[in-house]
Design a protein that fits this description.
It is a single chain. It is built from three helices and five strands, in the order H-E-H-E-E-H-E-E. With 113 residues, the protein is of the alpha+beta class. It has a five-stranded mixed barrel. It is elongated and about 80 Å long. The mean pLDDT is 82.
Length: 113
């Protein structure tokens, strides 16, 4: 019986340490919410007029730029966040609009949920 005590203590210590690590790690991947505008990485805050001087909306410009190879971004105040999951269907639907985005942040990139 005495020989098993260190093993039990060792396992409980390991479980306690693992719980601590998970507890500290989980806020890193917790959903957050940002309010901003869906734009594109080329125009960011300044959308140009359409071809041959035709006026275009911010939404049309954003979608056109993304079709041309630009990436969707979220402008929240002075911050410009890249969007990791570019194929999220809500991005095109809300291009150029003010939105509330929920997701996880890693560096300067948001994965939209």
């Amino acid at each position: 019986m005495i020989g098993r005590r260190p093993l039990v203590f060792g396992l409980s210590s390991l479980v306690g340490l693992w719980s601590l690590v998970l507890g500290l790690w989980s806020p890193v991947f917790a959903d957050e919410t940002w309010t901003g505008v869906i734009s594109d990485s080329m125009c960011v805050r300044k959308h140009e007029s359409g071809a041959e001087g035709q006026e275009t909306t911010d939404a049309d410009c954003t979608r056109d730029c993304v079709r041309g190879g630009s990436k969707y971004v979220l402008i929240a105040g002075e911050h410009v966040y890249a969007i990791a999951n570019q194929d999220h269907p809500a991005l095109a639907a809300h291009a150029g609009a003010s939105v509330r985005v929920r997701g996880t942040l890693q560096g300067d990139s948001i994965t939209v949920s």
